[in-house]
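Components:
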Amino acid sequence: MECGIVWIMAAEIEFLPQGTVTSPEGFFAGATSAGINKRAGSKLDLAVLFSEAPCLAAALFTTSRLKAAPVLLSQQRLKSQEKIGAVVVNSGCANAYVGAEGLANAAEMAELVGEGIGVPPEDVLVASTGVIGVPLPMEKIRASVDRIILARDGGGELARAIMTTDSFAKETAVRVKAGNSQFTIGGAAKGSGMVHPDLATLLCFITTDAALEKGFLQKALKKAVDASFNMISIDGDTSPNDMVLVMANGLGGSVPHDAFEPALEQLCIYLAKRLAGDGEGATRLIETTVGGAVNLAQARAAARAVVSSSLVKAAVHGADPNWGRIMAAVGRSGAEVKESKFDLYIGQIAVVKSGEPLPFNESAVIKLLKGKEVPLSINLNLGSGSATAWGCDLSPEYVNINSQYMT
Amino acid sequence: MECGIVWIMAAEIEFLPQGTVTSPEGFFAGATSAGINKRAGSKLDLAVLFSEAPCLAAALFTTSRLKAAPVLLSQQRLKSQEKIGAVVVNSGCANAYVGAEGLANAAEMAELVGEGIGVPPEDVLVASTGVIGVPLPMEKIRASVDRIILARDGGGELARAIMTTDSFAKETAVRVKAGNSQFTIGGAAKGSGMVHPDLATLLCFITTDAALEKGFLQKALKKAVDASFNMISIDGDTSPNDMVLVMANGLGGSVPHDAFEPALEQLCIYLAKRLAGDGEGATRLIETTVGGAVNLAQARAAARAVVSSSLVKAAVHGADPNWGRIMAAVGRSGAEVKESKFDLYIGQIAVVKSGEPLPFNESAVIKLLKGKEVPLSINLNLGSGSATAWGCDLSPEYVNINSQYMT
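Structure:
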């Protein structure tokens, strides 16, 4: 589905083989290695995304009450500015919880970039990811900004520059044809640690050349994020820096809403699944679908409870067919559940039917649990609510990575 | 505090050196090895707690919507019966999610025990802990019940019989003197995996010879559990079997409420801390105190968020002074927080003051993080709400244990 052509309503959605955040018309990107985090060596860690035409923008930010400085600055600017011209983003340092200098440093990053590319500094947004509580090394950033070369094919550099403990870059683009109109949406995301279903818990930059209205753009983003980034879990934590941003420069002309919405959702789900499967130390993607819930919200709560359960995640890591943990997770999710109606499948193998455990082929189930994608499905048989959530297994490697992140 | 004598109000609370669930007057216990879980070998796994005088009882149960059969049965009996005579409990099998036979098996356990000790079967409660989704081996239980010998000093056997992956038994008793009255409260608990602040997420049996009224007993239990078992976290999961039960046989005569409440709370906190420090794979107890919150509920939410954070737990395991994760956990807890008022201490060392990170002696902080008890304290400086929560570090061993539990 993600590589071929999908028809939704009257729109044809095609995933582009080398799609990036610069696939839509008029977007440029580039990155450099500023040496922000010593440990990262010469890794790309400072990137700029730029549109030759000013963009309408919409965003979702972390729900934390203690937000990082770049989040506070970008929130402010999205409110005060009509259009946005560029984003500057760094990895290796979160610019969070560093006191008053945080906002000043975020503002200076925007200023340095704005001056270099001829965009008013107030029209530049800022994002950061990395270690919390350490000030940005501004002298390194000042010395490096000018080295960034913006290019029409620079999207891949940006996707790599925002990685922290991610093991691969997450990016894609979709081309959409709907009647006479055609447009492209591109996206790049980073996740890995601190990813959980509680709003935009990651960095994601989405670009499009579709011409849209601001109100619609915000609504469409919320809807797409609810079905994608809010349905993944890695470790239950939420970062102070999370941001999902969409920029629309309108160069492709106006497009029907009912073509844009599903395309944006498909793009977000594609990126979300890659984030979920690349959790720190993860070896497997867990895909949990809950059907028959009383409503959509309950289906989502139940599906997320399963992929968030440490015990389910550890059992999947060991390919242990301990399905009771899946049932226990649904039971405590808050969703309405009747034991006598509960069905559970691992892959196509029925494990529980109407609340009664069934004898099953254990070696077949273990084989499924050892696959790259572990499909769990639950039918609550109570209503028509249905949802899918994605997570990863929990491995000893997760603990190793997170015991030594700072020191 | 836990070993000496504590004065609260007009009551003197003394922790008894060898205190158990049979320390209060009139309580008997005993256990046997029924071989319920093959892997456990000859471990004690079936126990009975009995009072020579019928007891008023109060309990808190799991909030899961999919409750295990013994929980359903015990809930029912607490409603229908005036008094309770005994409890039978097994480890090694949860008797959960096994379909219709679950309730029948739980009822038969109560019947077998009731007949053996001369208590009406309806006055016997049932509790189970262990693997989910596997039926109780009833033939083994039938063959073993008669082997249990009830003794006035049998509390220790019960505490050992309810252990699963616990590395030591958790039990204690307090003797309270208040004016002319004296009474004893005993308790035994098991926890380890699946422990989280969401009600009675463990098995805990509390006994007392104090004479109390049922309504007060339930209220006092709720209050004590909110300050103890609801303030600990090991892995964020909630079991279908969780139960905290208190039985009061009245043999010690009536006691003042304001002496019973703090004593019960002290006992529960003692047991809860031992549960938290003995999480699967845990090497350290994390004690987080949040002060200056807008109210008690927010202080509790913030303290629990810290001890529940996988990232904080992993950082403590690695003695990594990554304090930003503590701040991030408070930020997403839902509690009201102002960055400019936030103070954070590790032990007595100030790490953040009024939102500004302070230079600190890193080797001293690392030493604190390597201690058996890691004290974190936060002052939100917004109000007078204050609370303490307990958790443990997250080690690769946790993942190892939980990858192989069933197979």
